[in-house]
Amino acid sequence: DPDSGDNGLLLYSLVNNQMNEFDIDENTGQIFTVSVAGKAGTFYLEVQAADQGTGRLTARTTVNVTVDPSSSNNIVVVVLNQKINAVERNIVAVKRVLEGKLAWTVYIIDVYSNEFERKARSSTDVTHVKIIAFDEANHEVSAEDVKRKLREQNSDIEIELEKIFSTSVTAAIEEAPADSATPELVATIVLGVLLACTLVAFLVYVLFTIKRKRY
Q1: Which three-class secondary structure string do you get for 97-111?
Q2: Looking at the predicted structure, is the pLDDT value of residue 139 above 70?
Q3: Residue 25 in contact with residue 49, Cβ under 8 Å?
Q4: What is the number of alpha carbons within 13 Å of residue 49 lying toward its C-beta?
């Protein structure tokens, strides 16, 4: 049986994550993209799971995520009136709010501002968040349906985001630029995330097995 208390509490992290293309939810182990715009190739992510017990047991595995260059008609850009560094810091919570209100799985493809803002990341309160949604059957949701639901849930989304940022928040919709990632890119990213979740689950199994042997 899984351990209880601090021994049963696992926290996940990306080891030596210096490129910042990806991030991980420390509580669930879900890996997601922060910014892969204009990038392609295979990324090797080292994932660590650690319990919070006295012995502080850890285990690691490597997850390969392949990104192909592309463009998708179903990417939607949400514009938040928040500084980009604040959005990046709270991106897991932002994703959770969008998924909760849209009732779809949401993948964040990119978080960006304009070139001037990139040089002064805390100077301008405008951040663009590229998202794509998948339904329960793992089918891509059309951009029009995503936009429609974003408009329907706009007030509720802004209320939840205000709790995260502790200030007034507006969430507007902007058309995605022509150089957005294609369905092939998104599919590859999603497959990489699914693989990551599978390997992390295996990692947890190994961790618990090691702990059982110790006891």
Answers
A1: HHHHHHCCEEEEEEE
A2: yes
A3: no
A4: 25
